[in-house]
Every structure is written in C-alpha cells, then in structure tokens.
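REQUEST ID: PR-0412
SUBMITTED BY: lab tech R.K.
PRIORITY: routine
TASK: structure prediction, single protein chain
INPUT:
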Amino acid sequence: MKINKLLLSASFALCAAFMANAQEAAEETEYVFQPHWYIQGQVGMQETLGETSFGRLSSFNAQIGAGYRFNPVLGARLVFNGLNSKGSITIDGKRSDWKWNYIAPTADVTVDLTNLIGGFNPERLVSAGVFAGIGANIAWKNDEANTVNNALKGSLYGDLAENARPDVLRYIWSGTKTRFVTQFGAFVDFNLTSNLKLGLELQANVLPDGYNSKKAGNADWYFNGLVGVKYSFGTTFTKNKRKASRAGMDNNETNVVERIVEVPVEKIVEKVVYKEVPAPLSRDVFFKISKCVITKDEMYKVAEVARYMKQHPDTKVTVTGYADKGTGNLKINLRLSKQRADAVVNALIKDYGIAADRIIAKSMGEEEEQPYSTPAQNRVAICIVE
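STATUS: complete
OUTPUT:
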C-alpha cells in the first residue's frame, strides 16, 4: 500500500510538471504598423461604355498617384488618371468611331480588407482591398467627334441648308469640358519587399450623360484595368517579440497545490499557496521625427500599459525615452528623449489615473545608446511594467 501511494504521488508530480511546461509562455512576433506615405504608377487599358460590342472602344490608360496609410486598414490617396476615351455610333449599317483626351484627378478613401478581416501582417504575400472617391474629368480635343457629327449631318440632312441641319451627336462639345466623376473599385497587391508592391487595380467611373457627345438619357461609364508598382517611404512596420499569455490562466489566478506527505501514523494534507507573479509587460510608443506628441495610432499602447498596471496594483513602470542619433545633435536629442518620456508619463497620470509614485521616467544618457538598429524605431519611449 505504501509503495502504491508513493507511485501515485510520483505520477501526480510528473503530470503537474508536464502541464506547467505546456503552459509556459511561447515567444511570438507582434507587428506594429507605422503610418507612411507612398507613390504609385500604373498602366493599362480602358473600355468606354457605348452602343457597340465590348472591346471595340478600348484604349490605353495610365495613372499616377500619392497616398497616406493612417493605420493597417484605412488610407487616402490622390490619383491622376488619363489618356483618351472612345465613342462610336452606327447609322444605316455604317459605324463611325472617335476618341478624345482627358485627365481625371480623384481623391479616394482606401480600405485594406485583408487586414480588416485577418489582422495586420505585413509579411503576407498578397493583400486586397477596395476604394471609392470623387473628382473631376477634364476632357479636350474632341475634334474627331465634331468631324463625324458634321459628316452625318451632311449625309442625313443634305436637303436642308447647312445652318439648319440638326446635330446627330446631340451632346456634341468642343474645347475643354469639365465634368464631375465618381470612382470606385478594387485592388490586389503582391508584396515584393516591405516597401515595394506590385499591384492590380480595377476601376469603374461614372459621369453625367454627354461625355461621349451622345444623348443616352443615362449616365456614361468607363472602366479601367491597371497594373503597376507602389513604393512606400520610410519604415512601414516594426517587429516586437513578446510572451504569449499562459493558456487557461488569468494573471490574478492563484495556484493551489496539494502535497501528500507519507508518515507512519496518519496522512497529512499540506496546502501550499503560490502567488502568481505577473510577467513583465513591454510596449514601445513610437514618435514622428523631431516630435514628442503621442499620435492617436500609438496612444492605445499607453492605454494597454495603464490597464495592465490597474490589474496588477503592485507593479511599477519604467518609461525610457530615446531619440534617433542620426538626426540633430546630442543636446537636442537629450532634450527630445526626455520630452518623449515625459509625454508618456503625463498621459499615464492625467489620462489614465496612474499614481506618479508608480512611474519611473528615464531618458537616453549617451549618444550611442540606441535600442534598435533602424533610425525610425529609435524615436521611441519604451515602457516596461514589472
């Protein structure tokens, strides 16, 4: 019996050790998005919607633009699309085509659906999204349409005086014509590097009736298919290593372990209570170059620090400010690093109610003190809670 009890105790000990190892925190990568500017250039084809078979009114198309990504999902851009559009009319079995030039500046809002649904991961090979915007279509050089219109007037109304012949193209125009345009579509980007992407884009553009010089009683459309590259400036994301939370346990949970001690006379159950010590929490609050103001995109990290400290009232936070040594000089960087640390400290105290005696503020001491190898990452205040 005594041997059986010893074997049973050993089995419990092995199971407990196995479960503890299984629950040990695994190290995982946290991607931190960095707002950034980008430029793009694309070429492709356009199909102007008209009273003829698809493909008959195709023409070359090009687009350049610049944009800004505010966060992993939302962005905005200004693009200039243009080259030429085409029109067509068939009367008495005879078809006549014409083309004209245009440029269309539009302001779009972009939404990255991949990040919205699957979370931010800049190392994905493919990402997709949608966009929509408004702008102006500025068209000119409609000479071919006027030539077709005059020829049709002569062939259909040759028995009338020249000045009495009605226009066959009811909305014929000349000179320069500006119209309101609405644009929407979808894009797919293939990540070549962290800053360079190859992209496909499909656009639908709708304008008031008369863009193609004809009266149809409904809106005019043209569709663009484009392929090109997109280049992002600066650091688009950073990587942090962090410990995953222990599975199945809350940070405030207490472990109770029962240990059976064998004695000759009686069984004694001893309860040993171990208090769970919270794991250190680290958050990097990044700043823009030469700035010490916490952006909206970074404030959530300060909120995470404050929430963790409220959950663990015995913890303290050390906030260390840094500056990029490649910018400015030592005197400026010492002041800037202190201001960045102070900005985080003030937010913790004033915005989130953390007591000042639980906060330790530091700043870079020597110029060579840099936590990261990338300049943009060293514009930072590092918060460590323990």
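NOTES: Residues 149 and 169 are 6 Å apart (CA to CA).
REVIEWED BY: pending
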